[in-house]
Design brief:
Distance between the termini: 44 Å
Signal peptide: 1-25
Organism: Marmota marmota marmota
Bound molecules: calcium ion
Order of helices and strands: HHHHHHHHEHHEEHEHHHEHHH
Strand order of the largest sheet: 2-1-3-4-5
Strand content: 5-15%
Helix content: 25-40%
Domain Saposin B-type: 38-119
Main location: cytoplasm
Structural class: mainly alpha
Subcellular location: Cytoplasmic vesicle; Secreted
Number of helices: 17
Radius of gyration: 25 Å
């Protein structure tokens, strides 16, 4: 009965997990700091309480009923539903009292101490301040819950993962994030038969998980006469002439894999707006939540570089991987998304070792280096001192390239991708309503940015700010860093790969999207107001593909004349 806290629980779990990813997207190094953790707890609380409030409004129900509704929407997996009910049980009665007394989510969360204003710190709020003074309103709210027993529960700093039944799954997620290798991988070849927790959503599915000499991307062992050693679905002999199919269809076709070294944008960080928009919320809304949580809120299986599933939006473009596969079916399953939320030129060294390529046994690869934001983006109030300098970038990237040179098979290609000019974010979004603000026209992106910035959990306080000087400064640094990458590509040489540089052509994407009748704001993730969304990701992939095809066709290899024969004999080659 007393279940209104489902929502809060869900929200907290969602928030804690998502916000941790978000936080790390902001500033990986700082993710363990207390202020971050407090900030995320606050954001989480405000989001959940807002959703509860809006669900009551949309369904004309009580707050109690609204909390129960939210919990009922959540899947049982990962104990999401249970956690939700537990939270309702813990905090529901206080939330009911406060919301019914007309307090908004900011006031509720400050009263319940999920948000804290420390001495000397500004007051962080998502909604406009109450008409009566903040101090007065907060005091009034505190009186309402004064005798409540729930105030004894810990708030910020308390981690959802400390709940005993969540500890195990938290541990799993943590481990796969830390190592960026599959959690389930019987033969330890870094390829998995399990989709999430860094499994085949991130790199080609292992077709034999009890043999570490069998994995996507390797050169066929003895022409794959007896087994499919490289998981591309091609093996055996043609009964007509006894020639092995790998030899017949793939020899001389120059197979190659695609590897992305990226950040949250490359991994396709995405929080579906249905998770926040009360008016659209239904029993189906949270269906993908467990999958998303175990993928760190990333959707690499639908990303522009390594995605193998079709886009959910109506866009026909394919990922770079699917284009390479279409060009040469021998490339089937040869993709690796080595990306991490919060990744930058600096912290890539922590997880680049998760890359799998054997210099002697495997096919060459195309590596796209796309650290597009975190060298200039962080959540600090003054982000400038923490931005990467051009000198530092030069040395970080050289370190990465040296690592690649000692791990990539000869004949590989590396493309350094530039940084975008993020000023279009503020310019195109600040006046628009955030999904949370659409019902009552009360939360704009400007408000969201300022709330996140105030809590120091903004994914990019240099661009997501009303301070034009700061936005310009951030763009200038991004441009300097792009120039540095270009300089590296034109002046440095490596024995095992050719090196190229390409601009991050967001302006070209916007123009392309306009030509199709779209608006620039439709290219940004609606919930975080920061990441390129699925459409943008696929348009960028198309843009990159076309340029490479035009300028450096050798990177993509030849069209395989046997593609249709491969389809005839092997169908979908075992799928993905
Ligand atoms: Ca394996
Ligand atoms: Ca294997
Ligand atoms: Ca094969």
């Amino acid at each position: 009965m007393n279940s209104p806290w489902k929502a809060l629980l869900a929200a907290r779990l969602l928030l804690l997990l998502s916000l941790h990813s978000w936080a790390s997207a902001v500033s990986y190094i700082d993710q363990h700091s207390t202020s971050h953790s407090n900030g995320h707890t606050c954001v989480g609380c405000v989001l959940v309480v807002s959703v509860v409030e809006q669900l009551a409004q949309v369904h004309n129900s009580t707050i109690q009923a609204s909390m129960e509704r939210l919990c009922s929407y959540l899947p049982k997996k990962l104990f999401l539903k249970t956690t939700c009910y537990l939270m309702v049980h813990k905090f529901g009665s206080d939330i009911i009292k406060l919301l019914e007394a007309g307090m908004n989510a900011d006031v509720v969360c400050h009263t319940l101490e999920f948000c804290k204003q420390n001495t000397g710190q500004p007051l962080c709020h998502l909604y406009l301040l109450p008409r009566e003074s903040w101090k007065f309103t907060l005091e009034k709210a505190r009186q309402i819950v004064k005798k409540s027993s729930t105030m004894q529960y810990p708030r910020s700093g308390s981690n959802i993962c400390s709940l005993p039944f969540l500890a195990k799954i938290c541990q799993k997620i943590k481990l796969s994030i830390t190592n960026s290798v599959p959690y389930k991988d019987m033969d330890s070849d870094k390829y998995s038969v399990f989709p999430t927790l860094r499994g085949y959503h991130w790199r080609g599915r292992d077709c034999n998980d009890s043999d570490k000499t069998v994995y996507p991307g390797r050169r066929p062992d003895n022409w794959d006469i007896h087994r499919d050693s490289n998981c591309n679905g091609i093996w055996g002999k043609d009964p007509k002439d006894e020639i092995p199919y790998e030899k017949k269809f793939c020899e001389g076709s120059q197979p190659r894999g695609i590897i992305l070294l990226g950040d949250s944008a490359g991994a396709h960080f995405h929080i579906p707006p249905e998770w926040l928009a009360a008016s659209q919320m239904s029993l189906n809304s949270f269906f993908s939540l467990p999958m998303a949580i175990t993928n760190e809120l990333d959707w690499p299986q639908r990303s522009g570089v390594t995605g193998f599933l079709d886009a959910t939006s109506r866009i026909e473009e394919k990922s770079i991987y699917l284009r390479l596969r279409r060009r040469n079916h021998c490339n089937h399953r040869d993709y690796q998304n080595i990306s991490r939320n919060g990744a930058s030129s600096h912290n890539l060294e922590e997880f680049i070792k998760s890359l799998s390529r054997n210099q002697l046994l495997d096919h060459p690869a195309i590596v796209i280096y796309a650290m597009i934001g975190n060298d200039v983006c962080n959540g600090q109030t003054d982000p400038v001192p923490k931005m990467t300098t051009p000198e530092k970038l030069y040395s970080n990237v050289m370190q990465t390239l040296k690592y690649l040179n000692s791990h990539l098979p000869n004949g590989s290609h590396v493309i350094l991708y530039g940084l975008p000019d993020g000023t279009f974010l503020w310019d195109n979004l600040h006046n628009r309503y955030h999904p949370l603000g659409q019902l009552n026209k009360d939360v704009t992106y400007a408000q969201l940015y300022s709330f996140l910035g105030c809590l120091q959990v903004s994914p990019c306080s240099g661009w997501l700010t009303s301070n034009k000087t700061l936005r310009t400064l951030t763009s200038e640094r991004a441009e300097q860093l792009s120039k540095t990458l270009k300089k590296i590509a034109t002046s440095e040489k490596f024995t095992n790969f050719n090196l190229f540089y390409m601009d991050f052509a967001f302006q070209e994407i916007i123009e392309e999207w306009r030509r199709r009748g779209g608006q620039p704001w439709q290219l940004i993730e609606p919930v975080d107001g920061f990441h390129p969304n699925e459409v943008a990701s696929f348009l960028l992939a198309e843009n990159l593909w076309k340029k490479v095809q035009l300028q450096w066709p050798q990177v993509l290899g030849k069209e395989n004349p046997f593609n249709s024969q491969i389809e005839q004999v092997f169908g979908d080659q075992g799928g993905h």
